[in-house]
Amino acid sequence: MAAYLSESLRAQIADADRRRCCYCLTTEANSGIPMTHDHILPRSKDGETTFENVCLACRTCNEFKSDLTEAVDPLSGETMPLFNPRTQQWSEHFGWNLDSTRIEGLTAIGRATIVALRMNNPVIVAARRRWAISGWHPPKD
């Protein structure tokens, strides 16, 4: 059963997250698909439905994140916590490759999150290529 999010909480999250996925930065405007609400610490692991624990996520990131809270960094082999968009800065853990189609992990947390959420799956990489050519991607902030 989905957690209830009040209209005011939904508006606060949408505004703070700029109507884009907090993990891969895909926007609703580019994808044409509404964002989902992700419990950063899943409800199945006692995560609360509060601004500090809920963020926008695209359907793909949300689906692959599921109830994960950690994943293996492919470089070090260490188990790392997943990126937390409420307490960490995206640009400290991730960056774009030269043509802005692939997200690169700058830290163990970033790399583990990219792998776990499949943030560079072939479908999104192809979409990012088209968005970049059109000047819609990557986000400028």
Characterization of the model:
With 141 residues, this protein is an alpha+beta fold. The chain is 34% helix and 14% strand. It is built from six helices and six strands. The strands form three sheets. The chain has a two-stranded antiparallel sheet with strand order 1-2. A two-stranded antiparallel ribbon has the order 3-4. A two-stranded antiparallel sheet has the order 5-6. The longest helix is centred in the C-terminal third of the chain and has 13 residues, at 122-134. The chain is globular, with a radius of gyration of 15 Å. The termini are far apart. The mean pLDDT is 96.
Identify the notable features of this structure and list them briefly.
two-stranded antiparallel sheet; alpha+beta; 6 helices; single chain; 141 residues; 34% helix; 6 strands
| Low-confidence runs of at least 5 consecutive residues | none
Number of domains: 1
Tell me, briefly, the overall form.
Answer: globular
If strands are numbered along the chain, what order do they take across the biggest sheet? 1-2
Helix/strand order: HHEEHEEHEEHH
Give the N-to-C terminal Cα separation: 35 Å
The helix content is 25-40%
The amount of beta strand, in percent, is 5-15%
Structural class: alpha+beta
CA radius of gyration is: 15 Å
* Averaged pLDDT: 96
Number of helices: 6
